[in-house]
């Protein structure tokens, strides 16, 4: 504490970081996923949250786990009309949207020459096209209010050229998200909308769909100076920072949450 400063109830201050905010988190139905942890932390800090995912029942169950007033809706982020209709529905209920977290993503552990057109389409569509479409759906309402925060989930894979789990098409999609984040940040800053990206390293979730062997796991851990996989809450804390006024002067940034696996 600085000399002369008053002791502050840091807990009570932190608990209101997103008080009265309305937030959308895409791909947040996966029980051990990053989206779910982000949604939970946002709700814990006072936000009302909408969980959008492929499966309506899963999204609704996840939303009710967060507590009262949260909403779960089916929305495939690769479907532009569905993104727009879903945001319209939320605006009808809430009147505004303060925060969008573009978290929906898929990965595939393929080598370059094994990437078939359908693999490329699937991975680029959910990660990159989905980030674009969900953002396009919320921007008009954010612009109207002159405020908003968009947080995009990229990956260390974009920065170091894969080497963890996803193939080159995943690295390309996540690198595309970094470019999109920066271009959106530049274009939307005059409208009071901040856009930032998170680059998680290796985080223990179900995205590897049982395809991660014990050998791969050991090899990945050997490359992490902090010596452990990240927890979903490690990423959620960063998302909370970027969604809240704590990061009021940050836009176009990419924040590493990787245990030191890429220091650059
Ligand atoms: P996860 O597989 O646990 O959850 C992803 C969620 O996205 C699922 O609920 C799934 O149903 C949903 N989803 C998939 N396609 C969708 C679509 N078209 N529309 C809407 N929802 C869709 O994954 P996760 O590990 O929690 O990853 C979350 C994000 O973080 C992803 O973008 C991922 O690429 C990124 N990421 C994860 C890691 C990691 O180590 N786990 C590392 C770097 C980046």
Order of helices and strands: HEHEHEHEHEHHEHHE
Distance between the termini: 32 Å
Tell me the helix content: 40-55%
In CATH, the topology is named Rossmann fold
Low-confidence segments, given as residue ranges, are 1-12
Strand count, sense and barrel status of the largest sheet are: 7 strands, parallel
Give the domain tally.
1
- Cα-atom radius of gyration: 18 Å
What's the level 1 CATH class?
Answer: Alpha Beta
Content-based structural category: alpha/beta
Instruction: Supply the number of helical segments.
Output: 9
Question: Count the strands?
Answer: 7
Q: Find the CATH superfamily.
A: NAD(P)-binding Rossmann-like Domain
**What is the residue-mean pLDDT, rounded to a whole number?**
94
Biggest β-sheet: strands ordered side by side in the sheet: 3-2-1-4-5-6-7
Ions, cofactors and other bound molecules: nicotinamide-adenine-dinucleotide
Tell me what the CATH architecture is. 3-Layer(aba) Sandwich
Shape: globular
Strand content: 5-15%
Question: What layout of secondary structure does this protein have?
Answer:
Blueprint: H1 10-15, E1 22-26, H2 34-44, E2 48-53, H3 56-66, E3 71-74, H4 80-94, E4 99-102, H5 117-145, E5 148-153, H6 156-160, H7 168-188, E6 193-200, H8 214-222, H9 232-243, E7 254-257
Parallel strand pairs: 1-2, 1-4, 2-3, 4-5, 5-6, 6-7
Helix pairs in contact: 2-9, 4-5, 5-7
This protein binds nicotinamide-adenine-dinucleotide.
Nicotinamide-adenine-dinucleotide binds at residues 26-27, 29-30, 33-35, 53-54, 76-78, 103-107, 126, 130, 153, 155, 200, 202-203, 205-207.
């Amino acid at each position: 504490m600085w000399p002369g400063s008053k002791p502050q109830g840091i807990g009570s201050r932190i608990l209101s970081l997103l008080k009265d905010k309305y937030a959308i988190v895409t791909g947040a139905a996966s029980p051990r996923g990053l989206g779910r942890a982000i949604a939970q932390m946002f709700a814990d800090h006072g936000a009302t949250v909408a969980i959008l995912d492929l499966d309506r029942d899963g999204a609704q169950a996840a939303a009710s786990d967060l507590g009262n007033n949260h909403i779960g809706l089916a929305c495939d982020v690769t479907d532009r009309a569905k993104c727009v209709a879903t945001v319209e529905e939320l605006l009808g209920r809430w009147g505004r949207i303060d925060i969008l977290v573009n978290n929906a993503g898929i990965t595939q552990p393929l080598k370059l020459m094994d990437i078939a057109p359908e693999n490329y389409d699937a991975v680029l569509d959910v990660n990159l096209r989905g980030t674009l479409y969900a953002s396009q759906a919320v921007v008009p309402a954010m612009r109207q209010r002159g405020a908003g925060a968009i947080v995009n989930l990229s990956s260390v894979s974009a920065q170091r050229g894969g080497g963890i789990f996803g193939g080159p098409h995943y690295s390309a999609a996540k690198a595309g998200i970094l470019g999109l984040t920066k271009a959106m940040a530049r274009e939307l800053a005059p409208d009071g909308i901040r856009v930032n990206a998170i680059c998680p390293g290796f985080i223990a979730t179900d995205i590897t769909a049982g395809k991660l062997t014990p050998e791969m796991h050991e090899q990945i851990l050997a490359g992490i100076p902090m010596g452990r996989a990240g927890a979903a809450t490690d990423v959620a804390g960063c998302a909370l920072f970027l969604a809240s006024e704590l990061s009021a002067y940050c836009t176009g940034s990419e924040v590493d949450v990787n245990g030191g696996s890429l220091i650059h």
